[in-house]
Each structure stands twice: as C-alpha cells, then as structure tokens.
Model the fold of this input.
Amino acid sequence: MHQTAPPARIDESAFRREVRAWLADNAAEYREARAWPEAELVARSLAWQKRKAEAGFGLITEPPGLGGRDGTAAMASIFAEEEARYHTPTFTGLGIAFGMALPTIRKHGAPEQYRRFAEPTIKGEAAWCQLFSEPSAGSDLAGLRTRAVRDGERWIVNGQKVWSSWAHHARFGILLARTDPTVVKHQGLTFFVLDMRTPGIEVRPIRQISGKSDFNETFLTDVVIPDANRIGAEGEGWACAMTVLMNERHGASERASVSHDSVENLLRAALAAGRLDSSSVRSKLAQWWVEEQGLKNFGLRIRAALERGETPPPAVAMMKLVSATKMQQTNAFLMDLGEYGGLFSEPDRPEQEQVFFQYIWSSAMMIAGGADEILRNQLAERVLGMPSEPRMDKVPFNELPGIKSS
Amino acid sequence: MPSYISAGWRVRGGSGKLDLHFGDELKQLQEEVRRLLTERVSANLLRRLISEDEGYDPALWRTAAELGLLGAAVPEQYGGSGLGERAVCAIAEEMGRAVAPLPFFSSICLAAEAIKLAGAPAQKSAWLPRLASGEAIGTFAWQEGLGPPETDVDARFENGRISGVKSPVPDALLADVAVVVCEGPRLALADLSKGVRREPLRGFDQLRSHAKLVFENTPAEAMDVPDPKDALRRLYDRAAIYAAFEQLGAAESAMFMARDYTLQRYTFGRQLASYQAVKHNLANILVMVELARSNALYAAAALEADAPDLGAAAATARLAATRAYETAARENLQLHGGVGFTWEADCHFHYRRARLLALSLGSPAIWENRLIEALTKKNAAAA
Done:
C-alpha cells in the first residue's frame, strides 16, 4: 500500500481500539472545548501529560520507563488523531517541549542529556520556553548578542531575550548564546538548556496587541549554566537552532483540522449566513480548501519521508507560509459574513471571540519562526537552488557595523 | 527544449531525485518516459509542428505504443498492461512536462477511460486493444460550442444514428473513434471512418489540434450504461486527475525554465535569479506546485482505491494544478523579459497550453462549484 493512499493507516484496529477506550475512560471531561484561565490551563496541561505518561502515551516512541511504549511513529499518529477528537488541554510550553526542545536535544545532545531532560518533560513535570530572539536579532537571529563566557565547568550568561513564549511557566529554556565574538557570526553560537529557576533570570511580560501577554522579555544577569547543559559542541549552536526552527515551521502548520476556521466550518458558517450562493464566496472557500487539503497531503508526504528515515525537506518552510496567510484570510471572512455586526461578540455568539483572537494571532504567525520573506528566501535558495542574498556580514561578529562601536 | 530536472524535493545542481511515493516500478516507468520525451520532443520539433499546422508526431506515438505507455491502465484481457491508474498519472505528468505532441490525453485519458467506464463488453473488446496498441486513436466529444460542458446538449442519438455538431473536439482530425455525449444524456460510440464530417478549428493552443465533428444521421453504437449521468461524472473526475498530473508536470517544467533562465541572465552585474523579487516570485510558484503535487498524489491514490471522496479529491487536484500551471506559465514568460515574447524563447508553448488545460475539462469556476457541491453534500450527510 502506498503511503499517500487514503486508507494508509497501519495496523490500526487493535491499537486504535485501545487508544479509544483509554481516552473514553480518561478524557471524558474534555469532550467539549473550554477556555481556562491561564494558570489552570497550565496546571491541567501538565496533569494531562502526566496521565498520558502513566499509561504509556506520554511520548509513544519512547520506552516505558520514559512514559512511552516503544511504539512506532504510525502509532503516535493514531494516538494524535484520536486525541484530536477531544479538547484536551495543552499550551505552548508543551508544544515547545515536544515540538522543538526534545527533538533537538535528541539530535545534537548526548543520550544522557536527552534522558535527563526528556524524563521530567514526558512525565508532565516540565514545560519549556525558547530563548532565541533578541531586540536586535529577529529574522537575523545569528546576529544575537547574549554572551556566554566559559568559567571552568560552567558558563556565565548575560543578555536580553524577547518573544519568549510562556517563559513565566517554563521549567527549562532552550537558549542560544554567543560564545565566541571573534568569528563569523553563525560560527560563534552555542546551544544550552537553561534551568529557569537559576538566579539572575528576570521574566517580564510583554503586552501584545491581543491584550494578552503570552510573550516575555527575559533578562539574564550573570546567570550560571553548568557545562553539562551545553547541547552539542561549542560553536555548533547554529546547527541546533536550525533543527529547532525546522521543527517549529513544520509544527506551526499542524493545527488540528477541526478548528473553527477549517473550511468545513467556513462552509457551514456561509450556509447559515445565506451566502453560499455567492460565486465569490464559493471561489474563496474552494481556494482555502485547496490549501488546507494541500497542506494536509503535503504533511502526509513529509510524514512518509520521515518514516523512511529522511530528514524533513527544506520545502516544509512552505507550510507555515500557507497556513498563516490562510488563517488571516479565513478569520477575516468569518467577520465579513456578519458584516458590521461581525465585529462584535454577543452572548449568543461567543465563538466570535475566537475569530478575533485568531485574526490577531495570524499576524504573529507570519513572523514567528521565520518571517514570510525569510521563508520565501529559503524556498528559493534551498529548494530551487537560487543564489543567496548578498551578505555584508561575513566578517568576525565583533567587527560588524553596529557591534564594533557598542 | 532544455531538459529540466527532477520533481524531487531537492533540485539544486541538477542531481535531483524523483520522490513520488509511487513505488519503484512507477518511478522507473516515469523516468523512462521522461528520458524518451526529453530526447524526442525538442523545441525545434514543436516549432516545426506549429508552422506545419500539425499537432502530432506519429513516429513518437508509435514508440510510445511500443513501450506500452498507451495501455498502462487498460486491463490485460483487453491488451493493456494493467499497471493501473497511477501509471497513467505518471505518464501524463511527463507528457505535460514535455508538452508532448501526442493525442495521449484524448485517446487514453478520455476515450479509453470512457469505454472502460461505459462500454459494452463487445465495445471494449473491439476498441480497447486497438487504443492500447496505438493502432487506433480515440477521442471524446462532449462540448457544443461556447459555454460550460454538458449544458444544452443538442446532439441526438436515435435508432443507432447520431445527428448534431460537436465542437471543439480534441484530436478529432486524427481520431478513429469517438465517445459522443448526446441528449439525455446518452453516450454513443462512433466509428469516425463512417460518414462523419470533420472541420478543422483554429485554436489558441496550436500544438493540440481540435476539430468540429458534424454528424448527419451517422451510424453509431449505443453505450448503454444504466446511469449515463453517473458515468459521465466519474469520467470527468478521472480525467480531471490525469489532467492535474499533466498540468503539474508542465507547471514544474515552466518553473524550472524560469529558474534556469534567471540563473543564466545577468543584469546590473548580478544574476537575475539573485534578486529577491525574482526569488520570491519563484518561491510562490514552488508553493503552488507543491500544493498541487500533494493534492494530485492524494487524488491518484483516491482514484486507484475508488475512494468515496473521489469527486472532492479530483476537483481539489484540478483546481490546485490549474492555478499552479497558469501562474508558472505566465510568470515564466515575464521572467524571460522581452526575450520571452520571441518565438525562439519557447515560453509560448506553456503560455498557450496552460490556458487549454485550464478550460478543456471546464473552467476553474465550474470545478469550484463541483467542489462546493461535494462538500455541501458531505456536510448535509454529516448533519
């Protein structure tokens, strides 16, 4: 059977039945979507992760001692599909943990390090945050200035990070810092795991355009990191960061297709609003459907490639490019359907709040994990083999304009 | 025409690999077809065919037949190789990539499919082996002048005779047999050697000839499927998926043609391909091509499995591929600059072909409606 075939579910019956039965017993309270206050969401997310780990569903591909069951990637997919029928709690701190931190530590770190950080994470004891971007290093991440200076078997870190999602709830952070300013900027970076309870870390919330504060500024003052928490060799931080970003871009587009702005829901909304006869509405819905299905089927191709042991192709950058724009367009459409009134949430239409939120959030999605323009550059360069952008920064970091003087 | 590289993920340096998830056997077949067409379909040949008003290379057609490309989805009992629908998809992709001057789509993706779907056993025995061997060429006559397909079909089939005018009919000047959509709808099988008048048409795409077929009480055989409407719907779905692969291969070819040209061309002291405006343009096309490929692969799997969502999958594949090819063909010409407007730059093959493939089975608006209808039906069933 070909992997792209619709019924390409591998040995689904027995395992799927087991998963369904377990979810029915354990996830009953999450049948309906609910919005929890922030602190409760975090607590519930960690508790749910712990429960999964106790049943061997924490990270299915890991051994039982690590909260898994030595399962296959296909089993993990089956579990994810079944879990997606519920509205189980999860927050960004776990998304970063499983989507970015653990895969990177597994790939670039020592087995001992992986085990040390994977165990509390899979068992629901630790959420993670990402300490990459800085006020003067966004798309140009490799221009970051946070310094880590070696002091025997430890490192002393000073600097400022920004956009650290949910850092105030994180137990660990993945940190990219400059360890050698005398070499070209990409070569002087090293990747660390930072214990967020270390003295000298100050997390300050940033008020976003949504009114919420998911993101933070994180100030690091003489923060000590043991060398045992360095992942990969000194100077190999950029390779680690690329692994993180590749996973982030892939993961960012894997939103459940049952979300309120999926095309099937848009179609129902258009039908309810009496607008499905409009050819412009049909045309838009068809285009979004083509993109939604295209991404889903592209995801199947990626998954099949991963199962064959291949690394994700650079073309995965397109997933976020397509999904973020679609998110903005579809949520605008859900407002358009109500005309003027679509800009207001009444008690009988609380779901409109979700539309507002996603429309606002889409603008961040087009920037986080690589702005759209950066992703297009990457597609052109890495997939189509077109020339790199002209660079002015192929000199030692400390000789760059703007760095030299400061 | 330059030989463009690879449909795989990584195409840098010309050593790309095919990664179609079609299995080794099909991959090999596809590579073989690509090699053949790269060797035999040159830009010179295409320009000559246009100048001579020929839409067809008979010698290449014989080679394709000898290699078994025509009978890929014809069951073995009817002289085919029974490789299955995905093999036709793989071949169609290469036909599109090369803008091959062959009646493959008309004869194999339309006529043979129609006979497989709606033919009586005797009709299958009479025509499928001849279509599979290339000895006969088939076509499918549905359109009657302007407007969407199938609306207001006036051709009548009564007492074993057809009266009416079908136009445009692809490859009708070459065809030996046609499946004709008549009022009802009813489907009839007409041997075109018997009393049919053919009037050549001047078309937008000069590399696929079309003609008007005038039936004047012309003898034909009934294709008595119990539900002709359903058979037609299935035929369009299947043809749309084959066409999506043809468009996909062509879109990729136009994309790489633009990429290769902008890599060679220098302006203001740098490669044209090094400008961000050019890179982003091609990156956007790449996204469309990858979405189209993903949707086409899914539709091919749905086709071979005869999946319940085949209708939606076919429409999705067709819309994605049409968008990708039209964009790639247009942008390819623009990225060539003034040169692109010249006869010798060869951008016009895709520029014209993209329009033909976008409209020949019904325009995007028609397939958007088919898609929305399918999704609405699914939604109603779920409610």
